[in-house]
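Supplementary notes (optional reading)

For those who missed the lab, this is the record we used. Protein: Cytidine deaminase. Length: 145 residues.
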Amino acid sequence: MTSNQQVPSNEQWAELEMAARLAAKQAYAPYSKFTVGAAILDGNGKIHIGCNVENASYGLSNCAERTAVYAARANHGMQEVLAVCIYTPTPVPTPPCGACRQVLNEFGPTMRVRAICDGEDMIDSTLDLLLPGAFGPKNLQDAAH
């Protein structure tokens, strides 16, 4: 699959949503009790998951979206993210935080972003709308020329 194809398909969204819900069950959130699961779809059509992992030193905690990106890169050499699905067991969906938006931007500035929850509401957007005026690899390439 390449990013030129329409992504993700309904079947891929269903897989991403299921994977994000399952990932949330692996979350380590003893402090906030706020479990989050994320699933990303890479440029090769592979799904990678992540969950939030908290730490007693709160600043060292890691969000689900970043966990998914870091694991996909470390374990599979992922180079591009086409879509991310974030699940929270809440009545309303929770969008990715600013740090996650920045990390996601590194691998897919126009990726599709979907946040789902236990309620009927959903956030369905693109990263460039959620992170306007983003700084990323393109800025560094432009500066080099």
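If you only remember one thing from this example: The two ends are 31 Å apart (CA to CA).
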